[in-house]
Amino acid sequence: MLHHQLALYIHVLFVIVTLGCPYATQDIWADSSDAIDALHDQMDNGLRGVLLASFMDRSPESSLAKMLTRTKMHSVKPPALYSIEDQTFVLYVPKDYDPRQKYGLVVYISNIPAFVPPQDWQQVLTDRKLIMISANNADQNKSVYQRMGLAMDAVYNATLRYNIVSDRIYITGMHSGADLASVLAIHYPKQFAGGLFIHSCLFYRDIQSTATDDTQVRAGYRRPMMDKLYRAKSDNRYVILAGEKASNLPDLKAIYSRGFVADRFRQVQLLMMPKRNTTRPDRIWFAKAIDVLDRISAPAVTP
To answer: Of 208, 212, 194, 192, whose CA–CA distance to 151 is shortest?
Structure first.
């Protein structure tokens, strides 16, 4: 059934090989230079819509050793090694993509073996000049380090091949994918300008109860190094999107107010969808979350 569904959506299969590319060894984490911009102008291969991609290069940050040292996640699944040559990624590139213009990038951590953005989300991505990429074989049955590593590989390779502005590179996911997105967003604030955490979120320290709220949340991952945390707090943008009827809403409210806001993250908002639980946000709420993420500029206010 999964292969049948993919066959309906995937318009073309292409393999991009970076060996021999003059820009493959560039520091893509740095600000774009005129030379890189000029290369992007020449890289329009005509491919648009939903694409299946394969890459040859891993992100410098995605090795198991580096990720274990940096994030130290709590997981019952043992870490696993993978080869980038054996992996595939689903890309959505707006049909009017122009390599001479700057686009944003949304990296989606999926809970299923392959995620194709639904039609209503595709319209939002097109309207807001966003490309989306999601790794296959990174579902919730895989090691958290494989899932996060493939997300790092996704942003690394997408930014090599498309004209993407660094200030609009976002990491997102739903449920367990949102948990991992929240880890990567804070631990890698140079690679991700922000994060959209749908129906779930982790925090790097325990959230204690108060006299008026007995909700407690345990730390989900290791506290980032000071320079990474400072950048995440001062420069980047975060949105927690939750259903008003979701059973974990008290936890998300506590993480927002007694976590992000209490720790002085400058740009973070909690959006609550009325009369919703934990189903996939529709086009209206997905668009609203992206718009908030793009425009957050004032300190957060506790709801």
So the answer is: 192
Of 8, 14, 9, 10, whose CA–CA distance to 157 is shortest?
14
289 contacts 195 by C-beta, under 8 angstroms: no
* Gap between the Cα atoms of 236 and 267, Å rounded: 7
- The fold adopted by the segment(s) 2-295 is Rossmann fold (3.40.50)
Closest CA to 260 of 294, 290, 303, 295: 303
Q: Residue 116, SS3?
A: coil
User: Does the pLDDT value for residue 23 go beyond 80?
Assistant: no
Q: Where are the beta strands (DSSP E) in 70-119?
A: 89-93, 103-109
pLDDT tens-digit readout, 27-69? 333 444 555 455 455 555 668 899 999 999 999 999 999 999 8
Cβ contacts of 175 within 8 Å, gap of 6 or more: 111, 140, 198, 199, 200, 278
Q: pLDDT, tens digit, for every residue of 216-265?
A: 999 999 999 999 999 999 999 999 999 999 999 999 999 999 999 999 99
What percent of the chain shows pLDDT beyond 90?
76
Please, which residues bridge with residue 106 across strands? 132, 170
The per-residue DSSP string of 124-150 comes to: HHHHTTEEEEEESS-STTS-HHHHHHH
- Domain locations in the chain as residue ranges: 2-295
User: Nearest Cα to 59, choosing from 141, 135, 143, 144?
Assistant: 135
pLDDT value of residue 256: 98
For residue 13, which amino acid is it? L
Beta bridge partners of 170: 106, 194
Tokens (6 digits) for 212: 């008026």
Tokens 């709801």, located at residue: 303
Note whether 223 and 204 are within 8 A (CB). Answer: yes
